[in-house]
Sequence to fold (251 residues):
Amino acid sequence: MNTSLNTAIISCWLTEKEAVVYLAAYQLGSAPASSIARVAKQQRVTTYGILKKLCIQNIATQEKRGSTTFFRVISPEQLLSQHETKISEAKARLPELMALASVGSEIDMRVFTGMQWLITLYDLTLEKHDSPLYSILWNLKIDPRLDSYFFDTYVPRRMVQENFIYKILANNEDNQELHNNDKKEYRSSVLVDDFAIGDSHEIILFSDHSVAIALHTPDNMMGVLIQSKSLYMTLFWLFRTIWNSQSEEKL
Fold:
């Protein structure tokens, strides 16, 4: 596969594997996942998952022919146009992002250190339940001392109060298990590839334009609560952009 073409496609917000599959599909025209996988030199299951994701992103379309699903991707020109639209939308938010540096009087920030204070921070995210929660979770592997709180207290309380939560999850084995329990735990989530940063960190957007940032590692257990409309709206826009690119359930 042409390396320079690959690099150009990656610049349009696709991962390396997505770019390889896209180029293979474009080369073949309309083709089943198995044929695209052979050209892309990827496993069929991986290729099929990527093609379904590209369909959600309006980069590919699918057509059923008998018992076989055929996929076709948009042209590079159309892909570039989509990319330029996303950049334009991001630029439209740039003044708001830049304003964050000068809104000191608007921001109310509190720092929580230690396990008990971190639990207090999570409790605060459930004080009101007039709107959904939005969470980005990089790694489910948390300090064992927090396990009982999350699974015996936090999640049951959130479900009883009907605090629905949308979660963007780094695609790993632990988070896949969490994703599979969505309906049982009153949650909707998406798994995102190439999204891991190693440690267990979480960002939660909740009522009153509040942002909670939690670090769960044993040697660095702390959290920050920030109340800022500008920060909340900017992070929510980023959350919605990622979510809508991964899920058929649009926000």
